[in-house]
Amino acid sequence: SFNFDDLFLLSDNIIEEQTPSSFEIDQYQLQTLSNNNSTQEYQLLNLECRVCGSPAHGYNFDQITCESCKAFFRRNALRDMSHLKCRFSGSCIIDIYTRRQCTYCRLKKCFDIKMRKD
């Protein structure tokens, strides 16, 4: 016959052996927040820059960004985009490897994801 007491003893041992760190608890709390299917909360869990996809540290200019894209946007947000030109088709892929190749497309992507100037 099956003994439920043995099962509970076994599960108690497993739980004691796998006590979560505070980082894991924070990640769990963020994951719990993301269960309501909110895109921003899901992105908080992954902390991926919305501009280039590199690891991010938090919200900057109302979007999750890496330090590089935060600094780029701070320096360029007030520029007149009519003075910038793309050397290609105007739809460059902006990622961690190519983000420095086209100022126009990177700034355009910042505005496309609704980064705020103020």
TrEMBL record:
The keyword Repeat is annotated on this UniProt entry: no
A GO biological process held by the record: cell differentiation
InterPro entries linked: Nuclear_hormone_rcpt_NR1, Znf_hrmn_rcpt, Znf_NHR/GATA
Keyword tags: DNA-binding, Metal-binding, Nucleus, Receptor, Transcription, Transcription regulation, Zinc, Zinc-finger
One annotated GO molecular function: RNA polymerase II cis-regulatory region sequence-specific DNA binding
Record domain Nuclear receptor: where: 46-118
Full protein name: Nuclear receptor domain-containing protein
Organism encoding this protein: Rotaria sordida
Source lineage: Eukaryota, Metazoa, Spiralia, Gnathifera, Rotifera
